[in-house]
Hints:
By secondary structure, the chain is mostly helical.
Amino acid sequence: MPDGLTIAPVRDDDPFGWAMELAGRLRRRRELAASDRNALSDFLEEWADEMLAAVRSQLVNLLAHAAKVANTRNPDVVGHWRSECVEFHDRLIDVYRPSMRDKLEIAALWRRAHRKVVASFRDHAEPLPQWTAQCPVSLDDLLDPELDFDRLIAVIRDA
């Protein structure tokens, strides 16, 4: 553009570029147009929802894979599923923030994990496990950076 002027990205066309442009404006304390303020608010809420969804997904996957290990009769898959537990937990620890706690309903996540286990066991002709309606582990247990996977699996197996 002539005279060093650039056209600011539009949110719908380039959300990353738009977010970076607005972040720069905020840092320079430049005034944002009302439409940019509204769009920025929407964007931040959507981004927060995506972050929360990532945490929920990691929790469901961790619970489901721990339950698979606890209930499978196929020893050939245990090692893989245990490794998956470690991976899901590492990702969970990376993305979880304390401000999310009130948005995480362990009972709902446990139900989602149950659906995954049932689908997996049906796909692999495994007998469906007995399933307690109440999640046998707490959110604090799952968020512990030093989570003991053997204990987690045993608690789920004994529930």
